[in-house]
Specification:
The strands form eight sheets. Strands 1, 2, 3, 4, 21, 22, 29, 30 and 31 form a nine-stranded antiparallel sheet that branches. A six-stranded antiparallel sheet has the order 14-13-18-19-17-20, with helices on one face. It has 30 helices and 31 strands. It has five domains: 427 residues, Multidrug efflux transporter AcrB transmembrane domain (Multidrug efflux transporter AcrB transmembrane fold, Up-down Bundle), CATH 1.20.1640; 90 residues, Alpha-Beta Plaits (2-Layer Sandwich), CATH 3.30.70.1430; 165 residues, Multidrug efflux transporter AcrB TolC docking domain, DN and DC subdomains, CATH 3.30.2090.10; 90 residues, Multidrug efflux transporter AcrB pore domain (Alpha-Beta Plaits); 94 residues, Alpha-Beta Plaits, CATH 3.30.70. The chain is of the alpha+beta class and 999 residues long.
């Protein structure tokens, strides 16, 4: 090849090209975004429709069904789910990836505006949320003051903290959580009776004073506003509810009006009352920079706070990203040191070792430039690709350099050696570059969120390989000609002797073993069969479970007890973790729906046990607390597109066209059957119909004789037994709820009166209140009633074992009106598993196709392809011995390995072909000599790539699990694969070349 000679003669040209690559890379580094994972924007939108005081059944019938039917017609919608709970409907919409997010959002807003008129008038304004991986809060702040109530803290945060945080570049929102103020209007039952006032009359009057109204302009320029809104207790007190003769009955005459805190939600920070601020970042902002600015802002705010106020960062998700990326950066540095050390030991020359060292920053800079050019980011996966590329980028330089060095050892000048060595090996370098790059082409065809996830990894690694090839053909030969000196430069002669002895013994071994066709054929067959056997025994899952430093527990709300009584149970669960030393902070959220207790663990370097071990201990402790149902979880993956479910490792969805009563019978039967399976530790479903509730049933004839609307009865009952939200009011510009309640809680409906044309009528006269079992939450999946069955696996059970069992179980279900869908995790596992197997096969085909074009032969690529099963055997063996699983990370490692291990075959086959062509030697003699000549560069490149991957295996702390998964595949595949390649490839060369001659 003449290209390297061209650049040897033009050193300035070669130098400028590579300097430009570095400069462009540095400019790109300043602009490129930083994330934990690549940006995957699958359009997902959530709609919340509050319906105060409505039961789950009413929310389902009045809101969920109506809204779903209208929303289902939106173009591109692939999945629609809803959850109907007390006082709220939550509808989740998922769109196909081809749909533009802005178009989907616009369509949803139009539909919601249309739906609004179809829904009950008492609903609060529907809220539409955009869902993406950046939509969740990433930075959590607590505010405490032992002398202030929750509502006072909330108000203080709105006035003094929120705007300071939102003003930080990169912050999208700062949500304040806690029990806030409400204007509590407590109606006096006796006064209402005395003045013959209905609850609905009070509500109608209050709503008149809910907003300000426009009132035109003066002289067409000065606007007038009709300010009738109420701002304080006095304003509400003076509202006239009824005119009785010459007397005005005001609200203060029939009610007690007080500004106070709501009691339906509580937060404790490390056991003490407080509030939380959840900070969200904008989609494209750098989480590390935003986190640093937030921390600095909190320091400034804390210096200006009044006495006894404390503001603290409780949890920062960017800590995991920071630790993980720092670990990857350290792995890059360690890989560089180890690779340079390997080169030095093999070539025994400091100058020679400098040449590959110079190529590394050039290739890394080029990789960053390519990522920025494609609009990609620096993230865990692209940085992992850079760690792997350390061994790859020096690989081409090593091959060129080693061949040049061979000619210097023969006595030629560095200049002549650079020309002869690079010309001889140039084709092999081009072949290896194209081959390794072609491996990643199939990843471009991988669809879905996982495909989007790994395209950046593929581009980073393929880009590094291409840049490496360019540097090897331009910079490395020129540097060799300029830097290397003639003569014996060895400083470690014993290594030279050792390498010579290895080469000689290797040549002798090949001469003896290659004629033994049965032995080598049997060995190859055993390796392939052994790979299949090992593969079946390795656990399989979507992604390795990470230790992200969070362990939480959900406590199910006990039916029929007050929030105060339930909180007593929550406190016991909260305190159960006090003796666990790994827990650093804890935050508890308590509401009518249950309590969620979040435990933030110590830094990874400051604890010996993993989050999983802490979770198991916590689980055992809470089992000792009677009467509570709990679910302990740990956040173990932040992989975009992966479903997060705290209530079971895997689940599937049971849908029906029947009633929930019939559905729960089916669910109970399924759970009882699954519990008998020895693979499953715990099996539950999430449909509960045993919460205590009441149904008010009218005598239709008697009710029709009255001048009363059903809505009037609804208002009366809501106020009699609970708080009813009426409207909002402003306090210092902050909006809070106005709630209506009664000073008397009736024992039965006979004590509840409503006025019909000023005549009191007891509800007991025309209706009957019956005790019934109610649902806490009613779910729909694609417009069908649905529930989930959650399954927790025993520790020794593999994910794929469970998948097979569940799949068999589902296929045996044949009940009328019942449809079963795989849960998102199971569905993604099935889809990704099959897709990855197809992509690995496609990668092998691409390698074969590229090599066939380069060698202009169908046989030579086939010989090289036999390196792949040898490498896969080592990869699977190391994965099994290390206790790791087959997952998307290890499978990406296998695709990378396919390209790496095939390089060895390329070097042997290409040199053997040259020897046959130039000397007319036999296939046996040619391949033995080629194998001996290529042994040193094969050993060097293997050691370089293995030691470049060793930091991934040794990695600890945040994100270590994913790095370990790829590391074991590459180290095992390259180590074991190379050993067998050095024997099997020469053998296959002889066998296939001989067959080719015969045919």
């Amino acid at each position: 090849m003449k290209l390297p000679i061209f650049f040897i003669k033009r050193p300035v040209f070669a130098t400028i090209i590579n300097i430009l690559i570095v400069i462009i890379g540095l400019l790109a580094f300043k602009n490129i975004s930083l994330r934990e994972y690549p940006d995957i924007t699958t359009p997902q939108i959530t709609i919340r429709i509050p319906y105060p005081n409505a039961s789950a059944e009413v929310v389902e019938s009045e809101i969920a069904f109506t809204a779903e039917n209208e929303l289902a017609g939106i173009n591109g919608l692939t999945k629609i789910k809803s959850s109907s709970t007390y006082g709220e409907a939550k509808i989740s919409l998922k769109f196909s990836e081809e749909v533009e997010f802005s178009k989907a959002l616009s369509d949803v807003r139009e539909k919601v505006a249309t739906i609004r008129s179809m829904l009950p008038k008492d609903i609060k304004e529907p809220q539409i949320y955009e869902n993406n991986d950046d939509d969740e809060a990433f930075y959590y702040i607590s505010i405490t003051n032992p002398n202030k109530s929750s509502e006072e803290l909330i108000h203080f945060a709105f006035l003094n903290i929120q705007n300071n945080l939102i003003g930080i570049p990169g912050v999208a929102d700062a949500q304040i959580w806690g029990a806030s103020y409400s204007m509590q209007i407590t109606l006096n039952r006796n006064k209402l009776y005395l003045y013959k006032i209905n609850v609905s009359d009070v509500i109608d009057k209050l709503k008149l004073y809910a907003t300000n109204l426009p009132a035109g302009k003066i002289n067409d320029s000065i606007p007038i506003t009709l300010d009738i809104s109420c701002l304080n207790e006095q304003d509400f007190s003076n509202i006239v509810i009824k005119n009785q003769g010459s007397t005005n009955i005001t609200l203060k005459d029939i009610a007690d009006i007080k500004l106070k805190g709501k009691e339906d939600f509580r937060i404790r920070i490390n056991g003490k009352p407080g509030i939380m601020i959840a900070v969200k970042k904008t989609i494209n902002s750098n989480p590390l920079k935003v986190s640093e600015q937030l921390t600095k802002k909190l320091e400034k705010i804390s210096q200006t706070l009044p006495a006894d106020y404390a503001i603290t960062s409780e949890y920062d998700k960017s800590d995991f990203i920071r630790f993980s990326l720092n670990n990857v950066k350290n792995s890059i540095i360690e890989a560089v040191i180890l690779v340079v050390l390997i080169i030095f030991l093999f070539l025994r020359n400091i100058r020679a070792a400098l040449i590959p060292l110079i190529t590394i920053p050039v290739c890394l800079a080029g990789c960053v430039a390519i990522l920025d050019m494609f609009g990609f980011s620096l993230n865990t996966l692209t940085l992992l690709a850079m760690v792997l590329s350390i061994g790859l980028v020096v690989d081409d330089a090593i091959v060129i350099l080693e061949n040049i060095y061979k000619y210097i050892e023969m006595g030629k000048s560095p200049l002549q050696a650079a020309k002869d060595g690079s010309k001889e090996i140039g084709f092999a370098v081009v072949a290896m570059t194209f081959t390794l790059s072609s491996v990643f082409i199939p990843l471009a065809f991988m669809k879905g969120s996982i495909g989007k996830l790994f395209i950046e990894f593929a581009v980073a690694l393929a880009g590094s390989v291409v840049i490496s090839g360019i540097v090897a053909l331009t910079l490395s030969p020129m540097l060799a000609a300029k830097i290397l000196k003639p003569g014996n430069l060895d400083i470690l002669p014993k290594i030279d002797i050792l390498i010579y002895q290895i080469e000689t013994k290797y040549q002798t071994l090949l001469s003896k073993i290659l004629p033994k066709k049965i032995l080598l054929s049997t060995t190859l067959a055993l390796l392939i069969v052994g790979s299949a056997i090992i593969y079946n025994f390795i656990p399989k899952e979507m992604a390795p479970k990470e230790d992200r430093g969070i362990v939480g527990i959900f406590v199910q709300k006990l039916s029929g007890i007050s929030l105060n009584e339930f909180d007593d149970y929550s406190i016991r669960v909260e305190r159960a973790s006090d003796s666990i030393s790994e827990i650093n902070k804890k935050v508890a959220f308590i509401s009518q729906h249950g309590s969620q207790i979040i435990n933030v663990l110590n830094d990874w370097s400051k604890r010996k046990r993993s989050a999983k071990e802490v979770k198991e201990e916590y689980q055992e402790k809470v089992k000792l607390i009677p009467s509570v149902q709990t679910s302990v979880w740990s956040e173990d993956s932040n992989l975009p597109g992966m479903e997060s479910d705290n209530r079971g490792e895997i689940n599937f969805i049971v849908k029906t066209t029947l009633s929930y009563r019939e559905l729960i019978k089916t669910l109970d039967d399924m759970v009882n059957t699954l519990k008998k399976n020895p693979l499953f530790k715990e099996v539950t479903h999430n449909l509960e119909l045993n919460n205590m509730g009441y149904d008010l049933r009218f005598d239709k004839y008697k009710f029709s004789q009255l001048n009363i609307l059903p809505q009037h009865i609804s208002d009366l009952l809501a106020v009699s037994f609970d708080d009813k939200y009426v409207q909002n009011f402003l306090k210092d510009g902050i909006s809070y709820n106005v709630n209506l309640s009664s000073n008397y809680k009736p024992k039965n409906i006979n004590e509840i009166y409503i006025f019909n044309n000023n005549i009191p009528v007891s509800l007991g006269g025309f209706s009957e209140l019956k005790l019934s079992a109610k649902a806490n939450e009613l779910r729909h999946h694609n417009q069908m009633r649905a529930a989930k069955i959650n399954i927790e696996l025993k520790p020794e059970v593999n994910f794929d074992q469970a998948y097979k069992e569940i799949n068999n179980f589902i296929h045996n279900i044949n009940e009328p009106g019942i449809i079963i869908d795989l849960g998102e995790k199971l569905e993604k596992f099935r889809h990704t598993y099959l897709q990855m197997l197809f992509l690995i096969a496609l990668a092998v085909f691409f390698i074969y196709a590229v090599l066939a074009i380069q060698f202009e032969s169908f046989i030579d690529p086939l010989i090289i392809i036999f390196t792949i099963p040898l490498g896969c055997f080592g990869a699977l063996l190391f994965t099994k011995l290390s206790g790791n699983s087959i997952n998307i990370f290890s499978q990406i490692g296998i695709i990378t390995l396919i390209g790496l291990i095939s390089k060895h075959g390329i070097m042997i086959v290409e040199f053997a072909n040259n020897i046959v062509k130039e000397r007319n030697a036999s296939c046996m003699d040619a391949v033995i000599e080629a194998s001996k000549l290529r042994l040193r560069p094969i050993m060097m490149t293997t050691f370089a790539m293995v030691f470049g991957s060793v930091p991934l295996i040794l990695s600890l702390g945040a994100g270590a699990e994913t790095r370990n998964a790829i590391g074991y595949v590459l180290v095992g595949g390259l180590t074991v694969g190379t050993i067998f390649t050095l024997i099997i490839i020469p053998f296959m060369y002889i066998v296939l070349k001989s067959l080719n001659k015969k045919t």
